[in-house]
Amino acid sequence: MARTYNVVTYGCQMNVHDSERISGLLEQAGYVRAAGGDDTPDIVVFNTCAVRENADNRLYGNLGRLRPVKDKHPEMQIAVGGCLAQKDRGDIVRKAPWVDVVFGTHNIGSLPVLLERARHNAAAEVEILESLDVFPSTLPTRRESTYAGWVSISVGCNNTCTFCIVPSLRGKEKDRRPGDILSEVRALVDEGVLEVTLLGQNVNSYGVEFGDRLAFGKLLRATGEIEGLERVRFTSPHPKDFTDDVIAAMAETPNVCHSLHMPLQSGSDTVLRAMRRSYRADRYLGIIEKVRTAMPDAAITTDIIVGFPGETDADFERTLDVVRESRFSSAFTFQYSKRPGTPAATMEGQLPKQVVQERYDRLIACVEEITWAENKKLVGETVEVLVAVGEGRKDERTGRMSGRARDGRLVHFDAGSLAGQLRPGDIVHTTVTYAAPHHLNADGEPLSHRRTRAGDAFEAGRSPRTPGVLLGLPTIGAPATPPASTSGCAAH
Fold it and tell me: pLDDT tens digit string along 456-479?
């Protein structure tokens, strides 16, 4: 029988997409995904995150729970990859000697070989590269969705934010050529995918390697020429690199969604300076104003850190002011987490936990007041919903289905007379009847239902698989005809 695997993912969309590549590599090597409820797969891979302080605890806690399982099933292999593996390296095997393989962010493609070597040598294999060996998109991918896909346009980051450990773990920015990106998008669309999210640590700086400051706006426009691609999103941009041509491309390219994730981090110029974020609040608010002028319906989301070293009451109040002025549709809020190896970890003015918690609670209350008010404006409006799977945790109990509107908002809707006919990947139009701070409800009869190829793929039990897409010279233009993609049977 084929050996089975399970991949456990922590962290951001980059890690989720990396896990798709890990799955693709393992399946190419002959492994099959473990069935649900299988507590003893032959291989367990932890794809880790190192951004938050509790990342170490989560990993080592899970490794500890696996130790008795490994003792009973010594043939089981445990692998640890991702950002925490890149940071801790050989310490992982020292702390958890029952781990078989440790690999980093730069050598995902080595995993099958490392597993085989560890099995043959009956010893742990630790391999961490200091720079990218192969661009991840050259690796095979087992996609997790029939209707939406991640596409990396770059990896790494050239910024030096004092709170962030990512650049030291992901390395300097490496850009893919536009033709390769568009080929991968077309391959996904050929398999029925309707929505693509372009991924990068800083998508706005895309093109830095080949000297085209306007490359990202051009890339967005080029996606508009791909027939069958209905929705394009991107994450994450950086305010310092956000240019007017990107706003124009968003407004003028029909399949680019009017949703924007724009990290704020702080509304205080003093704190932004200490964070080494090379923009100020006025610059940030100016971008928001331009986006809303070009796209009045745009839904803007953000990231905010509370309790950065040295943050005063006045600094925090300024953050609340910017939040109120920006009118975000959603915000990812974080209490500052000290990460060893970052400049902020040794800064003076580290704040007491109770101060950070009090500010955090006030921020949450402020954000939810605004998001609720913004969502209430949509009551009575018709929204286009891409039916999803796994978005609504209460759907089974409430009898609703869930999906995302074009602006990215989560919508729980009543299928009405279409119950039993709707599939994840299909498109419905429905009317919003109720708004909450984090979602919309549509409890009337859907106005329309469109069956899609993505829905057909879901019904047939298929998920897209894309082969590796080779690197080449950086050019914008008509991409070469992509190779025929293969279909196969099938979780930021």
Answer: 989 988 766 665 543 322 222 223
198 neighbors 155 (Cβ within 8 angstroms): no
For 91-122, the DSSP string reads HHHHH-TT--EEE-TT-GGGHHHHHHHHHHHT
Beta strand ranges found along 153-223 (DSSP E): 154-155, 174-175, 195-199
With cut-offs at 50, 70 and 90, classify the pLDDT of residue 492.
very low
For the entire predicted model, the pTM comes to: 0.80
How far apart, in whole angstroms, are the C-alpha atoms of residue 137 and residue 471? 9
- Joined together, the tokens standing for residue 407 give 């602006």
Tens digit of pLDDT for each residue in 175-202? 989 999 999 999 999 989 999 999 888 9
Helix (H) or strand (E) holding 221: helix 215-223
- Sort strands 125-127 and 259-261 into parallel, antiparallel or unpaired: unpaired
Q: What SS3 class is residue 442?
A: strand
Q: How far is CA 173 from the centre of its chain?
A: 17
Q: Are 407 and 330 in contact (CB under 8 A)?
A: no
- C-alpha–C-alpha distance, residues 242 and 223, integer Å: 19
Gap between the Cα atoms of 156 and 106, Å rounded: 10
Answer whether 110's CB lies under 8 Å from 104's CB.
Answer: no
What does the alpha-carbon distance between residue 104 and residue 155 come to, in Å, rounded to a whole number?
14
